[in-house]
Amino acid sequence: xxxxxxxxxxxxxxxxxxxxGTGKDFKLYPGGGREWDWNETGTRHSPGIQPGDVEExxxxxxxxxxxxxxxxxxxxxxxxxxxALDARGVAVHVAETTEAVRVYNELAATRAVGGLFHxxx
Length: 121
Hints:
Pfam family, one: DUF498
Largest sheet: 5 strands, mixed
Strand content: 25-35%
Keywords: Cytoplasm
Mean pLDDT: 97
CATH superfamily: MTH938-like
Number of domains: 1
Strand order of the largest sheet: 5-4-8-6-7
Protein name: Mth938-like domain-containing protein
GO cellular component, one term: cytoplasm
Shape: globular
Subcellular location: Cytoplasm
CATH topology: Hypothetical Protein Mth938, Chain: A
Structural class: alpha/beta
Helix content: 10-25%
Number of strands: 8
Low-confidence stretches: none
Order of helices and strands: EEEEEHEHEHE
CATH class: Alpha Beta
CATH architecture: 3-Layer(aba) Sandwich
Distance between the termini: 33 Å
């Protein structure tokens, strides 16, 4: 199993990820990750994280997914996204960003975890 990259730090508008450098929003999965460009799937704060946003995580072997809702919980999660993960048997954790980072790093030690992280509102 490929390791999921560890998040080294998170602060407003900035994340540092081992092996990937710094950025604002990240899409992470076993074996790697990249900056998360919301425009790829038309993601907006509402209705939130789209099913298409999590596909890459699953395609790269994530069996558990962490979704961050932003530092002020303004990013929603489209119910269709949770339904899609459930239908594929993927466990999901949804939390405020700093808590999501904590949960993700903890899971990354033992599980094939993926995550979507939004470092502002």
